[in-house]
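Encode chain A's predicted structure.
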Amino acid sequence: MPEGSGRSRRDALGLVSVAGIAGFSAQSHTASAQSRHGDPSALDAYPNPEAAGLANSDALKAMVYPLPTTSMMILRGGKVAWTYGDVRQASYLASARKSILSMLFGAAIERGQIRLDATLEQLGIDDDGDLTPLERTATVADLLTARSGVYHAAGSPGGVENGPARGSHVPGSFFFYNNWDFNVAGAVYEKATGRSIFDAFATELAAPLGLQDFDPARQRMLGYTPRRSRFLAYHFFLSCRDMAKLGQLMLDEGRWKGRRLIPQSWVKTSTAMHVPGTATNASQLGYGYLWWRLDPARSSSAFNGAFAALGNYGQYLCVFPALDLVVVHRRAVTDDFAIARNLGLTDVNPAGGEVQLLPMLDKVVQGFAS
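Encoded structure for chain A:
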């Protein structure tokens, strides 16, 4: 999730505290509905939260006011149930970017361009200072589950500054949230498909979904200067409402308005539990292929099968199949800050209050489950 905060692993993952939840405003909801009028790419909306089955909109409003939330959108059954702030504002996704890469992997695997069991050795992956023979046995699946056992410095913040020593774990045996794994997974995708991640996203997801605020020129590769690894981070800048469409696509198992965009089998495989919550050291959340699993941390049936893309500063997309629900939360940071952070020019965090992630999600799902 996060891009190198220098804090404890649990806090750096944004799981101990993540900027909060937004409340429904009849005025903002109406304005949002008016902005969608006549736009075939826009999502339909309920007339009010109550019509969507949300029983606690006042409580959610009370929660958001003191927080640095900039936008929020909740979908129920593919329709907008609740909005807050400017859902059109595109901003930095931080580590939520990784789940987007996972979405792209599905079609590439189905085309036979990528094999999950392919090793770094077979793929010709090496890095500055050379990988060891043991590290070269790590597979694509190991990269996608943060279990590569490669503790080389990452090319962007969120690496092994306080991590295990090189060679201390056999590939596939130990979960460690290291941006080296995720950045290399991006390089594997680009090498195998012959196209950039951003070009593939624009063609395979943004265009068919009708993303309204996506700017291809704004997406960029970022990393330390001087470099610490030859593999940089693929950073996305997307809006709240466009992220909601990505979540709905995953909730609908890869189909959008009757069109198959992601193989159904990959949606199920990528969001399945590959690393249990007891192994992630992340508030008991489990991990799939670049997706977090929420259900190990909560016994509520509303969390059954729930999964999420989580990024630093409060960028997240949560999918609750049991409730037919998509929850997107944004805390916009400036591009200047995001770029400086990834170049290693600053390690500060934005000021502002935060709220614990799981209790906040409890409040959201309780409103729909009651």
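Residues 4-37 have pLDDT under 50 and may be disordered.
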